[in-house]
Protein backbone atom coordinates (compact mmCIF):
# COMPACT_ATOMS: atom_id res chain seq x y z
CA UNK A 1 0.00 0.00 0.00
CA UNK A 2 1.37 3.40 -1.00
CA UNK A 3 1.88 5.86 1.81
CA UNK A 4 1.74 9.57 1.08
CA UNK A 5 4.91 10.99 2.69
CA UNK A 6 4.67 14.07 4.83
CA UNK A 7 1.02 14.82 4.00
CA UNK A 8 0.10 13.64 7.47
CA UNK A 9 2.85 15.81 8.95
CA UNK A 10 1.62 18.91 7.15
CA UNK A 11 -2.07 18.35 7.94
CA UNK A 12 -1.29 17.67 11.60
CA UNK A 13 1.00 20.71 11.63
CA UNK A 14 -1.93 22.76 10.35
CA UNK A 15 -4.34 21.39 12.90
CA UNK A 16 -2.04 21.70 15.87
CA UNK A 17 0.52 24.37 15.07
CA UNK A 18 -1.59 26.62 12.90
CA UNK A 19 -5.33 26.29 13.05
CA UNK A 20 -5.46 26.29 16.81
CA UNK A 21 -3.96 29.76 16.75
CA UNK A 22 -6.98 31.23 14.99
CA UNK A 23 -10.49 32.41 15.65
CA UNK A 24 -9.71 34.43 18.75
CA UNK A 25 -9.93 38.12 19.60
CA UNK A 26 -7.13 40.13 21.18
CA UNK A 27 -7.37 42.27 24.27
CA UNK A 28 -5.12 43.50 27.05
CA UNK A 29 -1.80 45.31 26.80
CA UNK A 30 -0.58 47.02 23.65
CA UNK A 31 1.88 45.22 21.42
CA UNK A 32 4.12 48.25 21.79
CA UNK A 33 4.97 47.13 25.28
CA UNK A 34 6.89 44.24 23.72
CA UNK A 35 4.64 41.71 25.44
CA UNK A 36 2.20 39.41 23.72
CA UNK A 37 -1.44 40.44 23.82
CA UNK A 38 -3.65 38.32 26.03
CA UNK A 39 -5.89 36.05 23.97
CA UNK A 40 -9.59 35.76 24.68
CA UNK A 41 -11.48 32.87 23.12
CA UNK A 42 -14.91 33.47 21.57
CA UNK A 43 -18.02 31.56 22.60
CA UNK A 44 -17.43 29.24 19.67
CA UNK A 45 -15.84 29.23 16.23
CA UNK A 46 -15.68 26.68 13.45
CA UNK A 47 -12.98 26.77 10.78
CA UNK A 48 -12.63 24.51 7.77
CA UNK A 49 -9.60 23.91 5.55
CA UNK A 50 -8.67 21.84 2.56
CA UNK A 51 -5.30 20.43 1.57
CA UNK A 52 -3.92 20.06 -1.95
CA UNK A 53 -0.92 18.11 -3.15
CA UNK A 54 0.60 19.68 -6.28
CA UNK A 55 -2.75 21.40 -6.81
CA UNK A 56 -4.85 18.23 -6.46
CA UNK A 57 -7.35 18.18 -3.53
CA UNK A 58 -6.41 15.40 -1.10
CA UNK A 59 -7.76 16.16 2.39
CA UNK A 60 -9.92 18.38 4.60
CA UNK A 61 -9.45 19.62 8.15
CA UNK A 62 -11.82 21.24 10.61
CA UNK A 63 -11.39 22.95 13.98
CA UNK A 64 -13.77 23.94 16.78
CA UNK A 65 -12.59 26.55 19.31
CA UNK A 66 -14.48 27.45 22.49
CA UNK A 67 -13.78 29.20 25.79
CA UNK A 68 -14.12 27.19 28.99
CA UNK A 69 -13.98 27.69 32.74
CA UNK A 70 -10.83 28.76 34.50
CA UNK A 71 -9.59 30.84 31.59
CA UNK A 72 -8.89 27.78 29.45
CA UNK A 73 -9.60 27.25 25.76
CA UNK A 74 -11.04 23.98 24.46
CA UNK A 75 -9.99 22.79 21.01
CA UNK A 76 -11.27 19.95 18.85
CA UNK A 77 -10.04 19.17 15.37
CA UNK A 78 -10.05 16.50 12.70
CA UNK A 79 -8.30 15.84 9.40
CA UNK A 80 -9.20 13.25 6.77
CA UNK A 81 -8.19 12.32 3.26
CA UNK A 82 -10.77 12.44 0.47
CA UNK A 83 -12.23 9.49 -1.42
CA UNK A 84 -9.64 9.65 -4.21
CA UNK A 85 -6.63 9.53 -1.90
CA UNK A 86 -8.34 6.93 0.30
CA UNK A 87 -7.59 4.42 -2.45
CA UNK A 88 -3.86 4.91 -1.80
CA UNK A 89 -3.65 6.07 1.81
CA UNK A 90 -6.57 6.61 4.18
CA UNK A 91 -6.29 9.02 7.11
CA UNK A 92 -8.90 9.77 9.79
CA UNK A 93 -7.12 11.73 12.52
CA UNK A 94 -8.62 13.82 15.31
CA UNK A 95 -7.48 15.65 18.42
CA UNK A 96 -8.82 17.28 21.56
CA UNK A 97 -6.90 19.74 23.71
CA UNK A 98 -7.10 22.19 26.56
CA UNK A 99 -4.83 25.22 26.52
CA UNK A 100 -4.41 27.04 29.83
CA UNK A 101 -3.55 30.65 30.56
CA UNK A 102 -1.57 31.58 33.65
CA UNK A 103 -1.78 35.31 34.47
CA UNK A 104 1.29 34.90 36.66
CA UNK A 105 3.48 34.19 33.64
CA UNK A 106 4.62 37.51 32.22
CA UNK A 107 5.95 36.20 28.90
CA UNK A 108 4.45 34.37 25.93
CA UNK A 109 0.96 35.54 26.87
CA UNK A 110 0.89 33.32 29.95
CA UNK A 111 0.04 30.37 27.69
CA UNK A 112 0.95 26.91 28.92
CA UNK A 113 0.16 23.31 27.98
CA UNK A 114 -2.53 21.44 29.89
CA UNK A 115 -3.95 18.45 28.01
CA UNK A 116 -3.57 17.06 24.50
CA UNK A 117 -5.06 13.91 22.96
CA UNK A 118 -4.38 12.75 19.39
CA UNK A 119 -6.19 9.82 17.77
CA UNK A 120 -4.67 8.51 14.54
CA UNK A 121 -6.33 6.04 12.19
CA UNK A 122 -4.24 5.67 9.03
CA UNK A 123 -4.93 2.68 6.81
CA UNK A 124 -5.08 -0.20 9.31
CA UNK A 125 -2.86 1.50 11.86
CA UNK A 126 -4.42 2.96 15.00
CA UNK A 127 -2.60 5.01 17.63
CA UNK A 128 -3.60 7.21 20.52
CA UNK A 129 -1.20 9.74 22.01
CA UNK A 130 -1.74 11.80 25.16
CA UNK A 131 0.27 14.62 26.67
CA UNK A 132 -0.67 15.96 30.11
CA UNK A 133 0.82 18.52 32.43
CA UNK A 134 2.11 17.14 35.73
CA UNK A 135 2.46 20.37 37.67
CA UNK A 136 3.40 18.59 40.91
CA UNK A 137 6.53 17.15 39.34
CA UNK A 138 7.15 19.95 36.83
CA UNK A 139 6.92 17.74 33.75
CA UNK A 140 4.95 17.06 30.60
CA UNK A 141 4.05 13.36 30.54
CA UNK A 142 3.31 11.57 27.30
CA UNK A 143 1.97 8.16 26.36
CA UNK A 144 1.53 6.50 22.96
CA UNK A 145 -0.72 3.43 22.73
CA UNK A 146 -1.12 0.94 19.89
CA UNK A 147 -3.44 -2.07 19.84
CA UNK A 148 -1.75 -5.23 21.21
CA UNK A 149 1.34 -3.27 22.26
CA UNK A 150 2.36 -1.96 25.67
CA UNK A 151 2.19 1.85 25.85
CA UNK A 152 5.32 3.90 25.30
CA UNK A 153 5.75 6.47 28.05
CA UNK A 154 8.05 9.48 28.15
CA UNK A 155 8.28 12.85 29.87
CA UNK A 156 10.20 16.12 29.63
CA UNK A 157 10.80 18.93 32.14
CA UNK A 158 8.39 21.83 31.94
CA UNK A 159 9.85 25.13 30.81
CA UNK A 160 8.67 28.49 29.55
CA UNK A 161 9.27 27.44 25.94
CA UNK A 162 8.24 23.80 26.24
CA UNK A 163 4.79 23.03 24.83
CA UNK A 164 2.51 20.36 23.50
CA UNK A 165 1.39 20.86 19.87
CA UNK A 166 -1.88 22.61 20.82
CA UNK A 167 -0.47 25.12 23.31
CA UNK A 168 2.30 26.09 20.90
CA UNK A 169 -0.19 26.58 18.11
CA UNK A 170 -2.26 28.85 20.33
CA UNK A 171 0.89 30.73 21.28
CA UNK A 172 1.73 31.59 17.67
CA UNK A 173 -1.11 34.11 17.43
CA UNK A 174 0.20 36.09 20.41
CA UNK A 175 3.54 36.92 18.80
CA UNK A 176 3.79 40.74 18.71
CA UNK A 177 3.53 42.28 15.22
CA UNK A 178 6.84 44.08 15.57
CA UNK A 179 8.68 40.85 16.29
CA UNK A 180 11.69 40.71 13.94
CA UNK A 181 13.88 37.93 15.34
CA UNK A 182 13.40 34.14 15.15
CA UNK A 183 11.78 32.47 18.15
CA UNK A 184 12.58 28.87 19.12
CA UNK A 185 10.34 26.50 21.08
CA UNK A 186 10.33 22.83 21.98
CA UNK A 187 7.28 20.73 21.07
CA UNK A 188 6.74 17.51 23.02
CA UNK A 189 4.55 15.18 20.96
CA UNK A 190 4.20 12.39 23.53
CA UNK A 191 7.34 10.34 22.92
CA UNK A 192 9.55 12.72 20.96
CA UNK A 193 10.59 16.35 21.22
CA UNK A 194 10.95 18.63 18.22
CA UNK A 195 12.53 22.06 17.97
CA UNK A 196 10.35 24.60 16.16
CA UNK A 197 11.91 27.84 14.95
CA UNK A 198 9.46 30.58 13.96
CA UNK A 199 10.92 33.31 11.74
CA UNK A 200 8.94 36.45 10.79
CA UNK A 201 8.99 36.90 7.00
CA UNK A 202 7.07 40.12 6.36
CA UNK A 203 3.53 41.07 5.39
CA UNK A 204 1.53 39.87 2.39
CA UNK A 205 -2.04 39.88 1.06
CA UNK A 206 -3.76 36.49 1.05
CA UNK A 207 -7.06 35.59 -0.62
CA UNK A 208 -9.36 33.35 1.40
CA UNK A 209 -13.13 32.84 1.78
CA UNK A 210 -13.98 35.60 -0.63
CA UNK A 211 -11.73 38.44 0.54
CA UNK A 212 -8.13 39.63 0.61
CA UNK A 213 -6.56 39.57 4.05
CA UNK A 214 -3.51 41.50 5.24
CA UNK A 215 -1.41 38.72 6.73
CA UNK A 216 1.84 38.05 8.55
CA UNK A 217 4.06 35.44 6.98
CA UNK A 218 5.93 33.09 9.32
CA UNK A 219 8.55 30.54 8.33
CA UNK A 220 8.44 27.37 10.41
CA UNK A 221 11.35 24.94 10.73
CA UNK A 222 10.78 21.69 12.59
CA UNK A 223 13.55 19.25 13.54
CA UNK A 224 13.85 16.29 15.87
CA UNK A 225 15.78 16.86 19.10
CA UNK A 226 18.30 14.01 19.66
CA UNK A 227 18.10 11.99 22.87
CA UNK A 228 20.38 9.58 24.74
CA UNK A 229 18.52 6.67 23.14
CA UNK A 230 18.83 8.23 19.68
CA UNK A 231 21.85 10.53 19.77
CA UNK A 232 21.61 11.21 16.05
CA UNK A 233 18.72 13.31 14.77
CA UNK A 234 19.29 12.17 11.19
CA UNK A 235 15.81 10.60 11.04
CA UNK A 236 14.33 13.98 11.86
CA UNK A 237 15.58 16.02 8.95
CA UNK A 238 14.40 19.62 9.06
CA UNK A 239 10.88 20.10 7.72
CA UNK A 240 10.05 23.61 6.57
CA UNK A 241 6.70 25.29 6.10
CA UNK A 242 5.32 28.79 5.59
CA UNK A 243 2.28 29.98 7.53
CA UNK A 244 0.18 33.07 6.81
CA UNK A 245 -1.87 34.46 9.72
CA UNK A 246 -4.26 37.38 9.26
CA UNK A 247 -2.88 40.48 10.95
CA UNK A 248 -6.29 41.82 12.07
CA UNK A 249 -7.99 40.99 15.38
CA UNK A 250 -9.22 37.62 14.08
CA UNK A 251 -5.68 36.22 13.75
CA UNK A 252 -6.93 33.54 11.37
CA UNK A 253 -4.43 31.03 9.96
CA UNK A 254 -5.12 31.49 6.25
CA UNK A 255 -2.63 29.25 4.49
CA UNK A 256 0.12 26.75 5.20
CA UNK A 257 2.54 25.53 2.53
CA UNK A 258 5.32 22.98 2.64
CA UNK A 259 7.63 21.66 -0.06
CA UNK A 260 8.39 17.94 -0.07
CA UNK A 261 10.43 15.68 -2.30
CA UNK A 262 7.19 14.89 -4.14
CA UNK A 263 6.12 18.51 -4.60
CA UNK A 264 4.03 21.10 -2.76
CA UNK A 265 1.41 20.54 -0.10
CA UNK A 266 -0.84 23.53 0.58
CA UNK A 267 -3.55 23.89 3.25
CA UNK A 268 -5.99 26.80 2.90
CA UNK A 269 -8.94 28.25 4.80
CA UNK A 270 -12.19 27.59 2.92
CA UNK A 271 -14.86 28.26 5.54
CA UNK A 272 -15.55 30.10 8.77
CA UNK A 273 -18.63 30.21 10.97
CA UNK A 274 -19.98 30.07 14.50
CA UNK A 275 -19.78 26.72 16.22
CA UNK A 276 -22.76 24.59 15.33
CA UNK A 277 -23.57 26.57 12.17
CA UNK A 278 -22.93 25.86 8.53
CA UNK A 279 -19.53 26.79 7.14
CA UNK A 280 -19.61 30.13 5.35
CA UNK A 281 -17.88 28.93 2.18
CA UNK A 282 -18.35 25.66 0.34
CA UNK A 283 -15.56 23.19 -0.40
CA UNK A 284 -13.63 23.97 -3.54
Word description of this protein:
- It is a single chain.
- This protein has one domain (7-273).
- By secondary structure, the protein is mostly beta strands.
- The chain is built from 3 helices and 17 strands.
- The strands form 2 sheets. Strands 10-9-8-7-6-5-4-3-17-16-15-14-13-12-11 form a 15-stranded mixed beta sheet. Strands 1-2 form a two-stranded antiparallel sheet.
- The longest helix has 12 residues, at 7-18.
- Residues 1-5 and 14-42 have low confidence and may be disordered.
Number of domains: 1
**Largest beta sheet, briefly?**
15 strands, mixed
Q: Return Rg in Å.
A: 18 Å
Distance between the termini: 28 Å
Q: Which stretches are poorly predicted, pLDDT < 50 over at least 5 residues?
A: 1-5, 14-42
Overall average residue pLDDT: 78
Q: What is the number of strand segments?
A: 17
The chain-level structural class is: mainly beta
Task: Give the helix proportion (percent range).
Answer: under 10%
Our estimate of the beta-strand percent is: over 45%
Order of secondary-structure elements: HEEEEEHEEEEEEHEEEEEE
The coarse silhouette is globular
Number of helices: 3
The main sheet orders its strands as: 10-9-8-7-6-5-4-3-17-16-15-14-13-12-11
Amino acid sequence: MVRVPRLRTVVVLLAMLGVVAGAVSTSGKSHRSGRAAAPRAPAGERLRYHATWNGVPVATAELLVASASGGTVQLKGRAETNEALDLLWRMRDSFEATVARDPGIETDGGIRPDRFLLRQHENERRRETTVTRDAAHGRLVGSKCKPKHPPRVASVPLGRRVHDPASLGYLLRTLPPELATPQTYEVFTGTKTYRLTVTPAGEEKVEAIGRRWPARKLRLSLELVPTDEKPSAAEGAVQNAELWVSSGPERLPLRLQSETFWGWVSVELIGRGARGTEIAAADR
